[in-house]
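Narrative of activities, Objective 1.

The group set out to show that a structural description can be obtained from nothing but a protein's sequence at a throughput compatible with the screening campaign. Below is one input-output pair from the validation batch, recorded exactly as produced.
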Amino acid sequence: MQARRRHGSGAGADRKEGPADRVHVTHPLSGEKLPVWVANYVLMGYGEGAVMAVPAHDERDYEFARKYGLPVKPVIRHPLGDTVPPPWRPEYAAYGVCINSGKYDGLDYRAAVEAIAADLKKKQLGEKQVQWRLRDWASRASATGAVRSRSCTARPAATCRCPTSSCR
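Output recorded for this entry:
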């Protein structure tokens, strides 16, 4: 798979591949045992370490799960309901109310993010943070027509949309 990754396979690839690693991990909140898979379509530079797939609500993860016969468990009620039958529909990725999520059932997206972050912090497994990527910053800068840095005075701070603390 490494050779294919170097030659154009990867994010957005039509051919999603990924062998089961025969390793399992324990979900930090539910305690559920989950298989580890290695896939060729995970976006490079997205987070650090492992990336958890949510196949019911991400098109690439959905296609991968269907290809390998993995379970597709909806955890968000989307505009079309509580199930995610094939083929993939963009509505499956919509924000909604949590379902099949234990103590988080019934919470909307924002409340669920806060509750999950609080639980992970309580277990000393993580903290909520905002992580800007260069492409996020660059797209916001080009959308506003200006790039602003610590020494930049191109726009008043109140109208600047870049994520650097000096602009706020």
